[in-house]
Amino acid sequence: MPLGPRKRDLGVMRGVGFIPLLWISRAMHEGLIPGRRALPVAIAIANAVDADGRWCFLTRESLVVRCGGMASRSTVGRALDDLVDAGLIRRLSRSQVRAFFAEDLAAGTRSADRLPEVLELLIPASVFAEPTLAEINDVRARLAEDPVDAATRPYPRGRTTGQIDTPRVQTDVPDTSDRHTDLYPNHPYPSDPSPSVRGPVPEEPALPQIARIPDAALGNPAADRAALDRAARKVLDEGLAADELAAVLRDATTARRPFPALLRRLGSPEDARAFLDGRLGRGVRGNPPSPFAGVPLPRSGDHPDPFARPPEFLVDAAGTAPRTCPDHPAIRNVPGGTCRLCERPCRTVPGELMHPPAPAKPPPPEPPVEDVAIDPALLERARASLDRGKRRPSAPPPHPPAPAPARREAVAEARRRLAEARTPQSVR
Predict the structure, then answer these.
(1) 338 falls within a domain
(2) Are residues 26 and 121 in the same domain?
(3) Global pTM value
(4) Domain boundary pick from 98, 118, 142
């Protein structure tokens, strides 16, 4: 069937433009919407598709705007995956998207690396009235597209019946009214007397390499395996070869943190081939020659594969980080240094097992003091000598010698002259 952008013939049909939004309301009432985050995205898709549910090729940013601020870009992506898994929408593969926009790519109005996703709202054929379904199929026949019928548009597998009329639910409480019992919103499946009647929905088994990942290496084993399996099947649909996928998943069972590493590699076929060539992580086919060979990589900053480098502490401007001391995790210390509180060695990398410090060695023993016996006679002589020194009288100081006669005469003459000099002139 042609995949090019069709004329909006179905969008102008009278009386049927409300069907997509009414179907979303009906699916929400019957518990077919897989979670609250998927409801605004499903409403935005229903307002963008034609009357038969085809096509919606809004960008993620446009879907965020049409959700009225109720979902972010990442939430929109997860909601689309949930709606695909629930069988409410269909997503075209990358090759089909390129065929869908072939005319725009040839005219140069769109870029091949910035094409939006193309979605189809799978409205079951049984929800359309017969005149509406006949009008839709007439327009689809003119567009050379398959008709909408029970084979091409079955009811979602979440229900046990394909009828849109809600059967009567029997309850233990007698009801004198003949109208149908409506258990919404407490009962998520009003068409079934009990949720156990639905039974589990069969799921496709995960790829063998993903199924062999040990549970201890995954935070949430069931959800992580489902996400990895969905990403692996997506890159296969987008053109990645099976042998290339097997090479990407080769170390899935031995990796220390397989979930974030594999999810990074399986983001797109280009990411997977970048990993195989060594441009994203260590690679499989061998690293290409680099002009920076021999130059060590920095311990921080951007890295082609952030999960390939060892974990490090996130230090602040002072170079300290918490959880470095095993006994005081709240104290910020320098990794590999000593704790400021207990002065014990700190961890160098997160999760390092610290051994208790070795006991201090005892000081060497002092050499024994030799007990030497003293001769009593010698000791008595030493005491007598000390006593004699204490009793010795001190000698009087010697008298100074008498001055010479000439010196005495000189001194007397000097004194006479001084006396004359002090006597006033009038006295003389």
Answers:
(1) yes
(2) yes
(3) 0.40
(4) 142
Q: Is residue 370 part of a domain?
A: no
Q: Quick: pLDDT tens for 198-254.
A: 334 344 556 777 887 877 777 778 888 888 888 888 888 888 888 888 888 877 766
Nearest CA-CA partner of 197 in 234, 170, 175: 170
- Quick: pLDDT tens for 334-355: 888 889 888 888 988 887 877 7
Report CA dihedral (329, 334, 336, 338) to the nearest 10 degrees. Answer: -70
The tally of domains found in the chain comes to: 3
C-alpha 155/C-alpha 127 separation (Å) is 9
| Phi, psi of 338, deg, nearest 5 | -120, 150
Which of 301, 237, 314, 249 lies closest to 275 in space, CA to CA?
Answer: 249
Largest Cα–Cα distance of the chain, in whole Å?
166
Residue 32: domain span: 10-142
Per-residue three-class SS string for the chain:
CCCCCCCCCHHHCCCCCCHHHHHHHHHHHCCCCCCCCHHHHHHHHHCCCCCCCEEECCCHHHHHHHCCCCCCHHHHHHHHHHHHHCCCEEECCHHHHHHHCHHHHHHCCCCHHHCCCCEEECCCHHHCCHHHHHHHHHHHHHCCCCCCCCCCCCCCCCCCCCCCCCCCCCCCCCCCCCCCCCCCCCCCCCCCCCHHHCCCCCCCCCCHHHHCCCHHHCCCHHHHHHHHHHHHHHHHHCCCCHHHHHHHCCCCCCCCCHHHHHHHHCCCHHHHHHHHHCCCCCCCCCCCCCCCCCCCCCCCCCCCCCCCCCCCCCCCCCCCECCCCCCCCCCCECCCCECCCCCCECCCCCCCCCCCCCCCCCCCCCCCCCCCCCCHHHHHHHHHHHHHHHHCCCCCCCCCCCCCHHHHHHHHHHHHHHHHHHCCCCCC
Q: What are phi and psi of 54, to 5 degrees?
A: -125, 140
